[in-house]
Amino acid sequence: MSSPEPCSRPRIEIDLASVLRRATAGVHAEIEQLPLMLRLTSETATLDDYRRYLRAIVTIHAPLEQALYARLDDTTRDRLGIVPKLPALLADMEEQSLAFNPATLAFAPGPVLLDDLSATVGGLYVLEGATLGGRTIARHLRRLIGEPLGAARFLDFHSRHTSVAWKGFTTGLNALAAQQVLVPDRVIAGALAVFEHVYKRLELAGG
Ligand code: HEM
């Protein structure tokens, strides 16, 4: 007997996006309290703080994004409506006259990443969700630093389309879960693994 197609399975409604938010709220709050991030969000944040952040985040984001996208198929990527953010980050680095060492890409977060599609999408939830807080931080830095901040393309990745982009991502995520293309527990495990990796690396980078 052949196995049923995903679309013939009963739909299980789950707001996976909300479940993910709750499951990762603790580690997200811990990230916000790291010295590097506290400096960025303080009322005395400087251009040097922003540059320090760029130097740290590129060593974390670049290998992570590369590894996660390599595990993703085109259909799922299109349904989630996501695109790589590394080009924006590299443009910000160039604007700030910061060098990017391509050897960074060799530091793949291999062992912390889980291999299946659900866990991969969980990891991409972390990278996509970061654009929400990123927009708030970009506004804050623009107010304090002004023009020398530059475009802040990475932090303010979706700019005024942030809400629409997030709605698209969470709608795609919930639809894939409803169709049982994604296994919620694995998505959560993938998101937590990536969040913890980001936490540890930011802690090391920002001391
Ligand atoms: C100082 C550092 C940070 C601040 C102040 C911050 C702030 C925020 C804010 C304000 C939101 C939006 C919450 C909402 O719309 O209700 C958010 C969402 C989010 N942030 Fe951060 N963030 C920070 C760092 C990060 C980092 C480094 C990551 C991961 C790389 C991250 C991942 C996320 C995710 C995944 C969400 C979506 C949560 C959800 O609604 O499901 N954040 N953040």
Automatic annotation (TrEMBL):
One of its GO terms (molecular function) is heme oxygenase (decyclizing) activity. InterPro entries: Haem_Oase-like, Haem_Oase-like_multi-hlx. GO terms for biological process: heme oxidation. Pfam families: Heme_oxygenase. This is Biliverdin-producing heme oxygenase.
